[in-house]
Amino acid sequence: MLRHHQNKNLLIHYGGDYCGLPVQSDKGPFFQQYLEKLRGVIDSALQQYSRVLAFRIDLRFPVGITLPDDHCTNKVIERFIKSLKAKISNNRKNARQENKYAHDSVVRFVWTREVGSNGKPHYHMAILLNFDAFNALGKFETGRDNMFNRLEQAWASALGLSVEAVRGLVEIPANSAYCLRRNDPQSQADFFYRASYLCKVATKVYGNGQHGFDASRL
After folding, report:
1. I want to staple 13 with a disulfide (CB 3.0 to 4.6 A). Which of 32, 61, 165, 191 is the partner?
2. Is the pLDDT of residue 122 over 80?
3. Structure pTM?
């Protein structure tokens, strides 16, 4: 099995599937370790919840605005995740005040850092939540009390900017949300295929001190 020329620890995976799960072969090859982490996050979520809301988002940086000195490091994605977790925790706390049986949700994720042809980094993410707590992203309109606005607010917080300054920078790809079911292998395969894009070898950069990929460990 081939190893990546910039990072010899990473094994390159070819083919149209991984452990029986389909991948976007036209985007390949992929990193085996990344595919395995993606599979682990999905399995972990479905072990805890019988239904999982899983969705894809892209995070981009504004142009022409002064950003924190560390915006080109992964500290910015760490702040985004921390802020999103806090917002979801607060939402669930408020929900339990109205209904003591309201469901909680752990936040699971996979992200990849890529560098475009303009030399600027951006992030692709997959986020997994308890479907009984959150079953949709909501309308993509700023100001609403829904998941989309929590994502937008968390990205603004991570960059130290106003929500207005990051408007349009939290991108929701078409048909990005999936309901994964514990006893429905097809639903899991569909999302694995969609999220396999994050595991591709292309456009990832190594040797700059920044990880190109990470996933939750729950």
Report:
1. 32
2. yes
3. 0.93
Tokens standing for residue 159: 């960059």
On the CB side of 141, CA atoms within 13 Å amount to 3
> Which residues, listed in sequence order, are joined to residue 67 by a DSSP beta bridge?
none
Three-state SS string over 135-157 comes to CCCCCCCCCCCCHHHHHHHHHHH
Domain ranges of the chain: 12-215
Closest CA to 209 of 72, 31, 37: 72
Whole-number Å distance between alpha carbons of 48 and 24: 27
> 60-104 pLDDT, tens per residue?
999 888 888 888 889 999 999 999 999 999 999 999 999 999 999
- Going from the C-alpha of 76 to that of each of 70, 72, 141, 186, 209, the distances in angstroms are 7, 8, 24, 34, 14
Q: Residue 209 pLDDT > 70, yes or no?
A: no
The string of DSSP codes covering 60-113 is: ---SSS---TTTTSTHHHHHHHHHHHHHHHHHHHHHHHH-TT------EEEEEE
